[in-house]
Amino acid sequence: MNTPPDILNYESILAEWERMICETLRNEIETILPDATSKVWHGHPVWFLDGNPIVWYSKLKDSVQLLFWSGQSFDEVWLTNNGSFKAAEKRYTFLEEIDTVELAVWLTKSRDIQWDYANIVKQKWKLERLK
Known about the structure:
3 helices, Aspartate Aminotransferase, domain 1, alpha+beta
C-alpha cells in the first residue's frame, strides 16, 4: 500500500520512539485493512472504510494513542472507553508494548463492527450500527 505523504510527514516530525510506534501501527493497519483509505484528518492519521472512520493514531504528550471509533463494541478488556460515543483506545509508551496478534484482532473487529460516524451529523448525533 502506498502511504499518503501527509501521514509520512506526520510521522517524520515525531521523536524516534513515537515514530517507531506509529510506523509499526501504520504497517499493521495497512496490512490488515488493505482496502482502507487514509489521510491526516483533524491533525491525525486516520483510516476509513467506505468513508467511515475506523482507526487513528495520535501523538499525545507522553504516549501514542491508538483509537478505534467503534471500539467499545469490540468487547476487548485491553481497550479503554474514550468519549461519549463508541470509541475505545489503547496507549503506547514503548514499542515493545504493541502486541501485533492482539492488534490484528482489533483491526479485524474494526472492519466487521462499525457504527456510522460518516453520517452522524445527518442522523442528529445518533449513531446507527452498520452491517
